[in-house]
């Protein structure tokens, strides 16, 4: 440890330990979320869900992960190979990096950048590039549809998302995530920004391609959309990225609106995770109750309703800050 | 095709035969401009089993199990259509009690078909949960029919001249309990689906069938009634014990896929009404006609009978030349006509709508292919 500290400096050690921690967290979290999704879905559908492997099927997803690792990686002949191979990595790396700035508690943050929120938004919009790469390189019409839809959808929903986040930033005056949480020590921002919270959740659901906005992978229309031609671990990476993305958008929502680590009695990190999982449960609830919206309706909804509403919210916030 | 050149504005998308939303082995070639469809062409025949030809090589009894395989979702209606035709040829009178049992089982079977459609349709629209709700309900009917007929899907229950097995008190009380349970579920279905804003936006004004189009293409069943034409064989050409029951024919207004959804949902309630009345009025007596010949050898002649299945009018035309085998059997199946108009209505719609329209018609592919 001393050697490490000497050669890298305490900041370097912190980064390395943090990254290892993040990778562990991402994998365990994804396994847990997939299990949770199965259980949530099952109980909403009057059935028990996985029950056989482990208590209440808790180890089921581990077995599935092992199975996926053992699967053959099929590469269709016609695909554009470099891009096809690169896409699963491109989808996963940015997701990993956003964990750098997420404040799990006052001290549990790997690198508290002063542009934290911008970093998260920038990296999470990279995932659309990966979907486009995957869909385009697959040389499958259904995949191309998925990719095209994904691009249109992400551009449409990124704008209201950014504007909504801006209204919170205006209140705090800092891009630093810890500052945003500290500013909520008296009251949570959801109380003063309810509209922004609702807008954020809608946009976040669309950003993570979850039902009712799961158009890029709409099973009943596009079979599996952009990842139709992927198998084995390459498919697993897309899957992992989706669930980790869900964690990140929920974590950002917790930081922005639900007071981050603030809460009585329990330690901050526990409160943070509790809030994040409650939000994830909400997103899962959407998925298992709503039908899918149609593509044109989705884009219309973003441009004609969400964007004007988010602008109104931003203006009102600015006005309120000026007056009080 | 996509990369074939800038001049070509459209491309062909192959939907099926292996696609999650084609309900079996239907294949549709879609000529598309972006996500919009400019032309559509169905390719059928992947499930062809030559039922009509099989009839010519088997005697009358041997062909009976085939009927349950033509439309596996409403097998009993096909059973009944065929039995009615042969009975008409033989001049057999079916006893009252047998007719009642036929109506009860038939309507139960219609409920299973509509419940399955409900789930599959919502799945096409991207909602997964209703599928398991209605399968939970459907399971109860399957158990009931299983106890009576011995099978769960491809029933072969009716016989020429009646039914082979009487219903007992367990069946009656089980059916009553089920009807009660199903009625308590309508509120769930409404809250989960019918009142859902996304569902309404997805279905209102999509896949319109006008009255004229329906008549031109010979559309029958809920798809026709959704367009506002109250035509139901059970009312317009009553058969079996149907004239003795009070029930309504629900109709839609606009003929869009929302109307077809509402019509089917209300039809389920009407089926419950019919079953309840039949159970209340169930007469005593034999369940099999007297003097049914051991060797079915109808006299020379031609008959046509029609029954209302869950998908529309099923007609069967038998030509007999006084032999133990029919000379020719022609099956008029509802899905075939419905499919033709459906393909027409795909034009200028989005891919998502194609899947929704396909689901709203409730096609059964083996029925089309026969």
Ranges of chain A where pLDDT stays below 50 over 5 or more residues in a row are none
Indicate the overall shape of chain A: globular
Largest sheet of chain A: none
Number of domains of chain B: 1
CATH superfamily of chain B: Cytochrome-c3 Hydrogenase, chain B
Number of strands of chain B: 6
Question: Main beta sheet of chain B, described?
Answer: 3 strands, antiparallel
Distance between the termini of chain B: 34 Å
Name the shape of chain B in a single word.
globular
Q: Name the chain pair whose interface involves the most residues.
A: A-B, 28 and 31 residues
Number of H/I helices of chain B: 14
What share of the residues of chain B does DSSP label as strand, in percent? 5-15%
Q: State the strand order across the main sheet of chain B.
A: 1-2-3
Tally of helical runs of chain A: 13
Helix content of chain B: 40-55%
Poorly predicted spans of chain B: 1-5
| Rg estimate of chain A, integer Å | 20 Å
In words, what does this structure look like?
- The complex is a heterodimer of chains A (324) and B (370).
- Chain A is mainly α.
- Chain A has one domain (71-323).
- Chain A has helices spanning 2-44, 60-70, 81-98, 116-124, 127-137, 141-172, 177-182, 189-192, 194-207, 219-222, 232-257, 268-287, 295-323.
- In chain A, helix 3 runs antiparallel to helix 4 and helix 5 (127-137) runs antiparallel to helix 6 (141-172).
- Chain B is mainly alpha-helical.
- Chain B is 50% helix and 12% strand.
- Chain B has helices spanning 51-56, 60-70, 75-90, 96-124, 129-149, 169-194, 197-203, 211-217, 222-225, 233-236, 257-281, 334-345, 351-361, 365-369, and strands at 11-15, 27-33, 36-43, 301-309, 312-320, 328-332.
- In chain B, the strands form two sheets. Chain B has a three-stranded antiparallel beta sheet with strand order 1-2-3. A three-stranded antiparallel beta sheet of chain B has the order 4-5-6.
- In chain B, strand 5 (312-320) and strand 6 form a beta hairpin.
- The interface between A and B is medium-sized, with 28 and 31 residues.
């Amino acid at each position: 440890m001393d050697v490490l500290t000497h050669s890298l400096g305490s900041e370097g050690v912190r980064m390395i330990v943090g990254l290892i921690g993040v990778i562990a967290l991402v994998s365990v979290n994804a396994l847990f979320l997939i299990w949770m999704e199965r259980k949530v879905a099952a109980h909403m559908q009057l059935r028990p869900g996985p029950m056989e492997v482990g208590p209440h099927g808790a180890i089921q997803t581990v077995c599935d992960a092992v199975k996926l690792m053992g699967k053959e990686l099929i590469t269709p002949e016609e695909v554009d190979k470099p891009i096809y191979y690169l896409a699963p990595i491109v989808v996963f790396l940015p997701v990993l990096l956003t964990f750098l700035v997420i404040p799990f508690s006052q001290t549990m943050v790997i690198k508290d950048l002063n542009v934290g929120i911008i970093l998260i938004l920038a990296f999470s919009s990279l995932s659309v590039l990966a979907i486009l790469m995957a869909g385009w390189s697959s040389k499958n019409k259904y995949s191309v549809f998925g990719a095209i839809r994904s691009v249109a959808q992400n551009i449409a929903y990124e704008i209201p998302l950014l504007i909504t986040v801006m209204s919170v930033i205006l209140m705090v005056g800092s891009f630093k995530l810890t500052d945003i949480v500290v500013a909520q020590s008296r009251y949570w921002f959801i109380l003063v920004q309810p509209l922004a919270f609702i807008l954020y959740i809608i946009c976040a659901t669309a950003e993570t391609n979850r039902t009712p906005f799961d158009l890029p992978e709409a099973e009943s229309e596009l079979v599996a959309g952009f990842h139709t031609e992927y198998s084995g671990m390459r498919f697993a990476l897309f899957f992992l990225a989706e669930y980790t993305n869900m964690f990140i958008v929920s974590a950002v929502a917790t930081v922005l609106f639900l007071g981050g680590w603030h809460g009585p009695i329990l330690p901050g990190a526990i409160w943070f995770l509790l809030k994040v999982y409650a939000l994830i449960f909400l997103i899962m609830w959407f998925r298992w109750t709503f039908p899918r919206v149609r593509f044109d309706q989705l884009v219309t909804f973003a441009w004609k309703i969400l964007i004007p509403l988010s602008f109104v919210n931003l203006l009102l916030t600015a006005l309120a800050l000026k007056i009080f | 095709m996509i990369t074939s050149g800038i001049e070509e504005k459209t491309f062909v998308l192959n939907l099926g035969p292996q696609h999650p939303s084609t309900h079996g082995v239907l294949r549709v070639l879609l000529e598309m401009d972006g996500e919009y469809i400019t032309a559509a062409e169905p390719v059928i025949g992947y499930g062809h089993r030559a039922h009509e030809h099989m009839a010519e090589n088997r005697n009358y009894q041997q062909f009976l199990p085939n009927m349950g395989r033509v439309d596996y979702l409403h097998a009993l209606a096909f059973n009944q259509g065929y039995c009615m035709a042969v009975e008409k040829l033989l001049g057999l009178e079916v006893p009252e009690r047998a007719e009642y049992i036929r109506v009860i089982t038939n309507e139960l079977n219609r409920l299973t078909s509509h419940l399955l459609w409900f789930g599959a349709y919502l799945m096409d629209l991207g909602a997964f949960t209703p599928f398991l709700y209605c399968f939970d309900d459907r399971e109860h009917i399957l158990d009931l029919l299983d106890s009576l007929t011995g099978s769960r899907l491809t029933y072969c229950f009716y016989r020429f001249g009646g039914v082979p097995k009487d219903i007992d008190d367990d069946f009656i009380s089980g059916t009553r309990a089920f009807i009660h349970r199903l009625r308590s579920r309508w509120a769930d279905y409404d809250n989960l689906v019918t009142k859902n804003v996304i569902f309404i936006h997805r279905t209102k004004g999509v896949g319109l069938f006008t009255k004229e189009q329906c008549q031109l293409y010979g559309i029958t069943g809920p798809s026709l009634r959704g367009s506002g034409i109250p035509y139901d064989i059970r009312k317009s050409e009553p058969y079996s014990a149907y004239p003795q029951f009070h029930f309504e024919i629900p109709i839609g207004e606009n003929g869009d896929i929302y109307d077809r959804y509402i019509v089917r949902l209300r039809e389920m309630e009407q089926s419950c009404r019919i079953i309840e009345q039949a159970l209340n009025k169930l007469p005593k007596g034999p369940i099999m006609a007297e003097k049914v010949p051991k060797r079915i050898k109808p006299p020379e002649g031609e008959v046509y009978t029609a029954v209302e299945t869950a998908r529309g009018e099923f007609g069967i035309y038998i030509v007999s030349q006084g032999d133990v085998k029919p000379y020719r059997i022609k099956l008029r199946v509802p899905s075939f006509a419905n499919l033709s108009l459906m393909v027409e209505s795909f034009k200028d719609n989005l891919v998502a709508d194609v899947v929704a329209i396909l689901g709203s018609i409730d096609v059964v592919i083996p029925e089309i292919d026969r």
